Automatic annotation (TrEMBL):
It comes from Aphanomyces stellatus. One of its GO terms (biological process) is 'de novo' IMP biosynthetic process. This is phosphoribosylaminoimidazole carboxylase. Pathway: Purine metabolism; IMP biosynthesis via de novo pathway; 5-amino-1-(5-phospho-D-ribosyl)imidazole-4-carboxylate from 5-amino-1-(5-phospho-D-ribosyl)imidazole (carboxylase route): step 1/1. Residues 161-293 form the PurE domain. GO terms for molecular function: hydrolase activity; phosphoribosylaminoimidazole carboxylase activity. InterPro entries: P2CMN_synthase_LarB, PurE_dom. Its EC number is 4.1.1.21.
Length: 294
């Protein structure tokens, strides 16, 4: 157990990752937690817990108790905010707004901005956005209408790595923009390549060099969902495929393109859920992190 805390204490708990946002929250809790871990790592431990204790004499049990106490913040009976998610996974918690009331989304965003550098909500309708933006505590919030994203902070300067976001058709843009905006808010440079579906394959071929020069490609398509497989045959870079619910009856709300992508002849194509632009962005982000640390 003590070895675990030595490893945790040796990490830069507040270090910024390559994309520009803090990998943990910057609140007072992080500083206290660091002191606790450093005390345990230094071997300054004891067996019992007393009501009055100093950071110089803290047990592993005490440290674990304080760590667990900081795992999440409770908002009444409707939300538990995971403030340590970025520390565990490299990407902070984000609000999925569908199914939530406007009041819940507002209060969650207000609480999250106290502890996170990157604060955003996905799947926000224009009506919900207009109400949330009226709150005085969220006066600086921005609504990305096509992506249906609310963000409380501006996008940081982009890093050197580039993600290409390709969309087969204009109808796929809400999903493509959800991915693109999420990445930009995380500090990743994005190259948008839109309306390059297989019905006019020459449009895609004009962008072949840009795709190959990018570090990862997110390929969004509905209808037959053939575009990711085609792109997979043109580049050596990782591809994240996103099926959309765009299409006529036999597309079955995105099931047809999903199955096409899962059965892509081109190897190395990863597939996320239908319309999940956010999930594609996080997967691409993790691929970039792996490349940076490799």
């Amino acid at each position: 157990m003590t070895a675990l805390f030595r490893r945790l204490a040796s990490r830069r708990l507040c270090a910024r990752d390559h994309a520009g946002f803090s990998s943990t929250n910057n609140g007072a809790g992080t500083s206290s937690l660091r002191k606790i871990f450093e005390s345990v790592a230094a071997g300054e431990v004891r067996e019992s817990t007393h009501s009055q204790r100093s950071l110089a004499q803290v047990s592993v049990t005490d440290a674990m108790h304080d760590w667990r106490a900081m795992e999440y913040d409770v908002l009444e009976n409707y939300a538990k905010l995971d403030g340590q998610r970025a520390a565990r996974t490299g990407f902070p918690e984000v609000v999925y707004s569908e199914g939530k009331t406007t009041e819940h989304v507002t209060q969650i965003l207000l609480a999250m901005r106290k502890t996170q550098d990157m604060v955003l909500a996905t799947r926000v309708s224009s009506n919900m956005a207009s109400i949330v933006m009226e709150h005085p505590g969220l006066a600086d919030i921005h609504y990305h209408s096509t992506a249906r994203i609310l963000s409380v902070h501006a996008a940081p300067p982009p890093g050197r790595q580039v993600v290409c976001v390709l969309a087969a058709g204009t109808s796929d843009l809400p999903v493509a923009e959800e991915a693109a905006v999420t990445l930009e808010l995380a500090g990743v440079a994005v190259q948008r390549i839109y309306d390059v579906g297989v019905a006019g394959i020459h449009r895609l071929l004009r962008h072949r060099r840009a795709v190959e020069e990018g570090d990862v490609s997110i390929v969004v398509a509905g209808m037959d969902g053939a575009l990711p497989g085609v792109v997979g045959g043109l580049t050596s870079k990782a591809i994240v495929a996103v099926p959309t619910s765009v299409g006529y009856g036999a597309a079955f709300g995105g099931l047809a393109p999903l199955l096409t992508m899962l059965n892509a002849c081109s190897p190395g194509v990863g597939v996320v859920n239908i319309d999940n632009g956010f999930g594609a962005a996080v997967l691409a982000y993790r691929i970039l992190q792996s490349k940076s640390s490799g």
